[in-house]
Structure prediction request, 585 residues.
Amino acid sequence: MATITTSKTARGAATGPETPGWARWVDNHRKWLFAAPAMIFVAVLLVFPLAWTGYLSLTDAEGSVRAESEFVGFQNYLDVLSDTDRFWPAVGRTAAFTGVALLFEVVLGMAIALLLWRPFKGQKWVRVAILMPLVATPVAVGMMWRLIFDPNIGLANQALGWFGIGPQPWLAGQHTALPTTIFIDVWQWTPMVVLILLAGLTSLSEEPQEAARIDGASTWQRFRHVTLPLLMPTLTVAILLRGIDALKTFDILYATKGRGGGSFHEVETLNVYAYGLSFDYNEYGVSSTVLILFFLLIIGAMWALTARRKEAKR
Amino acid sequence: MKPRPAYTVFRVVALAIVLVSLLAPLVWMVAASLKTNVDIYDTSKALAFSPTLENYGKVLQQADYVQFIGNSLWVAFAATVASLILGVPAAYSMSRFNMKKSALVVLMARVIPGVSLLVPWYYVFSNLKMVGGFGVLIVSHMFVSLPLVVYIMMGYFDSLPEELEEAALVDGLTHVGAFRRITLPLSMPGIATAGILSFIFSWNNFMFALVLSDADTKTLPVAIFDFVGYASIDWGGLMAATTVVTLPIMVIALFVQKYVVSGLTAGATKG
Prediction:
């Protein structure tokens, strides 16, 4: 049957005469026919809502979703950007949460990945164990730590007691709440960094390592000047993925401190703040403004990281 | 070259510390779910307690958890299947025709904070009286799973040699036929990876269901909060509820570890 093929079809699709016309049409337009459903889905439910969020940020929409709203120009932006009571502290907490969590996750993740790198007996089981925090439901993880960090009955204070250290307020303290939630984030997501870096390490070739060893490089020198530079692209991907998710952290903050990030807004990040404005106070206009600014912050952070990555490649 | 014995000892100790830190909290959670509230409040009974299934009885019988488990399963399953149906062909096109910009649009869904979509969705869907229904919930969860599917499958299709399809074309198959009969069957490991990850992330998702579900359609992560009162927390019930959410997903991950890991690290080593 392959005898009478190609000549008739302009685009080189090998369609025999038994192929109906519509099938040939489908074949020639497959590029967009395949991609279109997903693209349309995303466009309708993402691009349009995002544009609407942009529009809402210029209105005084509040209360019921059916209520009339008025165009107020950039008034919301002026209000939000001059709000030193909730907005700027939330920006600060978002930056602190993301920065500190990322730092710990990268350093610990790198250390654990290096520990796991060379094969050993039982390696498979250790890898499975590493996966567990990662797949656990974040709100459940938040609740679990809420019990462990309970000032009165929690395991954390009990454990401190064994070392003669007095009880800490953990999540209940005004200044200890944010560091405690960072700890929870590090517990859950360091394994993610480990897995990504481990995949990177395993794909490295052995030769540069060998060469450095023959040249008499110490373990630290080999890590610093051979492994780390080669691993840089993978590390950047890990930082990028984790960074985006850390900026958007919501589940564990809501699970441990509830609405508004606690009674003093101790853990109120931009995402928690925007959520509260939208769904606790129905301040859709202002919340849209916060969301647009938050979105710009995320894009900015990503842009800075990818720019760095390109530089590193050069 | 053999590692020095000192390093071996250091490594064993360090790995033991890592393992205990990662697993002990989870063990503690399960242990607390098997205690009565009296035992949870008695710190001297941290480990020496007589286990009871009372909390699970409470969760499964009184609190309608069977229904919430069903809701979670249905939403995660439907979102995963729909994402695969939309995402796999799209990823194929994006990989074969190098549609970088289109891919970027889909991946934007992973970057955007969920709240910024929820506000307009809530506006539209509450005017359509659809908030609280499964339809909206499934669509919202597809925002978690579709980018995952596209991302993982693009990487997978990139790694499949095009020569296989070209051979099928010579044999008289159409492009679509070659995709259906050659590429898809070869992509099963990739599809399994994408499906498993999309199911896990949809199962774990909290924020969309928090806003878009109602008392009948809520999923497990939202239902957990039933055990948190304003004044006090039913710790035993809460820990049983959290165990019911997390344990199944951890057991699944245990069995399909290879897929989970390859999905989570997809694209990370290409640089």
Remarks:
- The first helix of chain B runs from residue 5 to 33.
- The mean pLDDT of chain B is 90.
- Chain B has 14 helices and no strands.
